[in-house]
Every structure is written in C-alpha cells, then in structure tokens.
C-alpha cells in the first residue's frame, strides 16, 4: 500500500450516528466505494479523525475524515496496475 496524504472530495451518507462514504474523487476520477472494510478513529489534540479502509473497483483505499476541519483525505492506495 502506497502511503499518501492528499485532500479529496467525498460524497457521503449520514445515517443515524454513522458516516458512510459512497464515492470519492481523485486524480480526475470518480471512484464508487463497493465496501467499507474497516472503520476506526484517532485523536490528534482536540481533533478526531475517522479512518475508512474501503474497496472500490478491485482496489483498496484508506480515507480519513477530520472532524475539526471537516475535510477528507486520501491516506493510502493499493491499486492493481495490470
């Protein structure tokens, strides 16, 4: 998995007390999330970040949502380059 930290735009669904990313935009592509594999949180001072490990189109991505800045980031990518 290649570690990166790039800001991205994400379409999400807020349902009950959960945040569910549906689609994100990276390098001019619209990437539809097929499955959320894992969700966890981390603390950085007064800010909480939600980390999502997701599968999309046979690839794996790690997204993060910072609750203080309300911004999304792509943290890591593992894409099949064949």
Helix residue percentage: under 10%
Query: What is the count of DSSP helices, taking H or I runs of 4+ residues?
Result: 0
Sequence stretches where pLDDT stays below 50 over 5 or more residues:
none
**Rg over C-alpha atoms, rounded to the nearest angstrom:** 12 Å
Content-based structural category: mainly beta
Question: Which H/E pattern describes the elements?
Answer: EEEEEEE
Strand order of the largest sheet: 3-2-1-7-6-5-4
How far the N terminus sits from the C terminus, by CA atoms, comes to 15 Å
| Count of discrete structural domains | 1
Mean pLDDT: 94
Overall form: globular
What share of residues are in beta strands? Answer: over 45%
State the major sheet: 7 strands, antiparallel
Q: How many extended strands?
A: 7
Would you write up a description of this structure?
- The model has no long low-confidence stretch (mean pLDDT 94).
- 0% of the residues lie in helices and 77% in strands.
- It is globular and about 40 Å long.
- A hairpin with a 2-residue loop joins strand 4 (35-44) and strand 5 (47-56).
- A 7-stranded antiparallel sheet has the order 3-2-1-7-6-5-4, with no helix packed on it.
- With 82 residues, the protein is an all-beta fold.
- It starts with a strand and ends with a strand.
- The protein has one domain (2-78).
